[in-house]
RNA sequence: GCACCGAUAGCUCAAUUGGAUAGAGCUUCUGACUUCGGAUCAGAAGGUUGCAGGUUCAAGUCCUGCUCGGUGCACCA
């Protein structure tokens, strides 16, 4: 492209807005500031309308603003609309009900955005650019020497999807897998390894053997069980202390457990398509733990208690006048009608450290190393209380850090069986993740074999892999992350309804039309005139426009389910379009225009699924 | 006991700073098509959003009380 061509392309790129409702919002702000100078425009948003009968976009903020300004809502709306010039993009703005503004886009304005997207100028959003933020995302975090189980799906899937969305929006993201490789369980594991290891079993299935050792020794160390043996417990504790003090033999065994576990992690993450920039487990922070405790004690933020060291409400807020109300204080709990301490332990009476200490050291490292704007912890909701304490301690420890770096716990609910209780296998155990992935692929293979018996086995297996793993991930991401949900093989693999196979199938249909269309008519869809005449064409086009808005909402609320619902809506809108509007059989220029709709739909479906960690395939 | 989270159609789940007549899917029933791969589409049926109050122009969403369920409450992570 010559210089002139480049300059023209830039001018044309400036003329077209990638996100129409943000342009409407900008003009609405200007109108409001003209009619009512000094108004607070921050909350004045233009967003997709809940129902097409109200138009395409709406603003409901003027009703709230009218109260602040002390004027009648409809009058305010009338005065603002009088200053608003959006006639190039919309039909005349309608003031509805108590003071809603309804915007109805002109098909030509929509067509212009689609044409720009087809030229590759944008995909319905504006990357963060100068406003890009730096995130550290802490997710997955499996335990060394234990099998990854069903519980790890959520953290891994939600975390990975958030990472992908944030990166796509142009943010800098550092992923860190905070492995559980240094806790109390290693005392028991070391004892088990030294006294009751079965080398043959270890060679056959290392993780299963390590799990067996842990379970056996744990039963002897648990004082609530009849098998409890205090001598064994003390020995196990001693092994841990030796490990954490740098004992060579124990470090060697621990390293071997680590290596064996990493093989498992690599295998599972490989299948899931998940990767990490860093894998800094708890052990990485061992050298700094004593320093964290010393510092907190020296600053008076922690004190000794019952041979342990802990952070208390009275060490954080020595002056009772500043102390939060007991109900809002993460360091108090009511027992028998009285508020008593709920301290956060940072050093145990046996000299060992707790994960609170490790988590504090981890914050220190991440802040110093990466200066993030935000650290996101994708961790089970049951740990909410821990994170409240952790974030509070961090804020007292280094207020400058928490002023710069926002700490966010992104919690999630549990996966249940049909009985609404946590999912278990038939024999009452927690299902292992690898077995779950196997079963997803096996069940998908059965379905593919039924539908497409003519395909060679290798092809069917590849389709089954993409469909099975996609179904499993999609089911997990579809409910709001804070909800518990019921795990159901038949439902997730169903070819109808809000499932990955349905969305993947609509993608294959769109991709097929594009392939066939290009084959017959190469090059003709590069910059066709976009004609939006039929209802189904318009509905599909308008949904495409909202892709970027959806990504922003996912990032703002840490909720991948918004993207699931979006791709499902887009897929079903495509299906309605495909049913009603012939593409390849249509006359020009309709044909090229519809082909472009197919192309953009395929692109957005493919990318949207990819941001959910789900692959697509050309045929199913 | 206290705190946190939840309770929405028969079932599984949504619902964007509080926004308009609470939406999907599954199931059931009915219909469309000599398919640009029907693994499709259309229509119907299905609700006092756990209960009782309150705030608001507007409440599934916010506040208060209650019922039921889940989770967490010092040396596991």
How would you explain this protein's 3D organization?
This protein has helices spanning 3-15, 20-35, 61-69, 73-82, 107-118, 151-168, 185-196, 199-204, 206-221, 230-245, 248-272, 286-298, 313-316, 355-370, 384-397, 399-404, 433-451, 457-477, 489-492, 500-520, 535-545, 547-557, 561-580, 590-611, and strands at residues 47-48, 57-59, 94-96, 100-103, 134-138, 172-176, 303-305, 308-311, 332-335, 338-341, 344-347, 374-378, 406-410, 415-416, 485-486. Helix 6 (151-168) links the parallel strand 5 (134-138) and strand 6 (172-176). It has 24 helices and 15 strands. Helices cover 54% and strands 9% of the residues. It is globular, with a radius of gyration of 29 Å. The strands form five sheets. It has a four-stranded antiparallel beta sheet. The chain is an alpha/beta fold. The structure holds one RNA strand of 77 nucleotides.
Strand tally is 15
CATH superfamily of the domain at 500-611: Isoleucyl-tRNA Synthetase, Domain 1
**Global outline:** globular
Radius of gyration: 29 Å
CATH topology of the domain at 500-611: Isoleucyl-tRNA Synthetase, Domain 1
Structural class: alpha/beta
State the helicity in percent bands: 40-55%
What percentage of amino acids are in beta strands? 5-15%
The name of the CATH architecture of the domain at 500-611 is Orthogonal Bundle
> Taking strands numbered 1, 2, ... along the chain, how are they ordered across the largest sheet?
1-2-4-3
How far from one another are the termini?
A: 39 Å
Briefly, what CATH class of the domain at 500-611?
Mainly Alpha
Tally of individual helices: 24
Largest sheet: 4 strands, antiparallel
- Low-confidence runs of at least 5 consecutive residues: 1-14
Mean pLDDT, rounded to whole units?
Answer: 92
């Amino acid at each position: 492209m010559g210089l002139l061509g480049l300059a023209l392309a830039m001018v044309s790129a400036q003329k077209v807005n990638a996100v129409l409702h943000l342009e409407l919002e900008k003009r609405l702000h200007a109108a409001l500031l003209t009619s009512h100078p000094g108004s607070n425009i921050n909350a004045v948003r233009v967003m997709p309308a809940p129902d097409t009968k109200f138009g395409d976009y709406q603003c409901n903020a003027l009703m709230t603003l009218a109260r602040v300004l002390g004027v009648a809502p409809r009058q305010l709306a009338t005065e603002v609309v009088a200053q608003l010039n959006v006639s190039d993009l919309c039909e005349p703005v309608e003031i509805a009900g108590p003071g809603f503004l309804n915007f109805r886009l002109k098909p030509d304005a929509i067509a212009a955005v689609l044409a720009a997207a087809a030229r590759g100028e944008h995909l319905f959003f504006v990357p963060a650019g100068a406003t890009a933020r730096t995130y550290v995302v802490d997710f997955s975090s499996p335990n060394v020497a234990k099998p990854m189980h069903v519980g790890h799906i959520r953290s891994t899937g939600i975390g990975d999807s958030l990472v992908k969305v944030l990166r796509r929006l142009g943010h800098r993201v550092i992923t860190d897998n905070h492995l559980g490789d240094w806790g109390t369980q290693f005392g028991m594991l070391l004892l088990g390894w030294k006294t009751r290891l079965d080398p043959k079993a270890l060679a056959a299935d290392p993780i299963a053997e390590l799990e067996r050792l842990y379970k056996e020794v744990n039963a002897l160390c648990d004082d609530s069980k009849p098998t409890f043996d205090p001598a064994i417990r003390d020995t196990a504790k001693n092994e841990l202390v030796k490990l954490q003090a740098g004992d060579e033999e124990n470090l060697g065994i621990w390293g071997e457990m680590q290596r064996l576990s990493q093989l498992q992690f690599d295998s599972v993450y490989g299948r899931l398509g998940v990767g990490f920039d860093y894998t800094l487990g708890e052990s990485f922070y061992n050298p700094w733990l004593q320093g964290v405790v010393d510092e907190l004690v020296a600053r008076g933020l922690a004190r000794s208690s019952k041979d342990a060291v802990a952070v208390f409400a009275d060490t954080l807020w020595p002056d009772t006048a500043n102390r939060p109300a007991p109900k809002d204080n993460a360091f108090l709990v009511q027992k028998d009608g009285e508020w008593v301490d709920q301290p956060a332990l940072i050093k145990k009476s046996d000299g060992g450290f707790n994960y609170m200490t490790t988590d504090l050291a981890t914050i220190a490292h991440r802040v110093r190393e990466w200066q993030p704007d935000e650290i996101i912890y994708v961790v089970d909701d049951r740990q909410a209380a821990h994170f409240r304490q952790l974030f509070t301690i961090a804020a007292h420890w280094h207020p400058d850090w928490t002023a710069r770096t926002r700490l966010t716990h992104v919690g999630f609910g549990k996966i249940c069986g049909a009985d609404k209780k946590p999912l278990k296998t038939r024999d009452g155990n927690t299902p292992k993740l690898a077995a779950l992935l196997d079963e997803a692929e096996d069940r998908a293979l059965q379905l593919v074999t039924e539908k497409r018996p003519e395909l060679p086995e290798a092809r069917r297996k590849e389709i089954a892999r993409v469909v099975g793993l996609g179904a499993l991930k999609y089911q997990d991401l579809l409910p709001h992350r804070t909800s518990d949900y019921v795990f159901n093989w038949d439902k997730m693999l169903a070819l109808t309804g809000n499932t990955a196979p349905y969305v993947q199938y609509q993608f294959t249909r769109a991709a097929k039309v594009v392939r066939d269309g290009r084959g017959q008519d190469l090059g003709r869809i590069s910059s066709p005139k976009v004609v939006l005449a039929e209802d189904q064409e318009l509905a599909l086009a308008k949904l495409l426009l909202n892709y970027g808005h959806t990504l922003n909402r996912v990032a703002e609320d840490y909720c991948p389910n918004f993207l699931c619902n979006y791709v499902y809506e887009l897929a079903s809108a495509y299906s309605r379009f495909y049913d009603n509007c012939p593409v390849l059989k249509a006359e020009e220029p309709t044909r090229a225009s519809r082909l472009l709709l197919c192309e953009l739909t395929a692109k957005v479906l493919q990318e949207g699924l990819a941001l959910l960690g789900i692959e697509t395939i050309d045929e199913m």
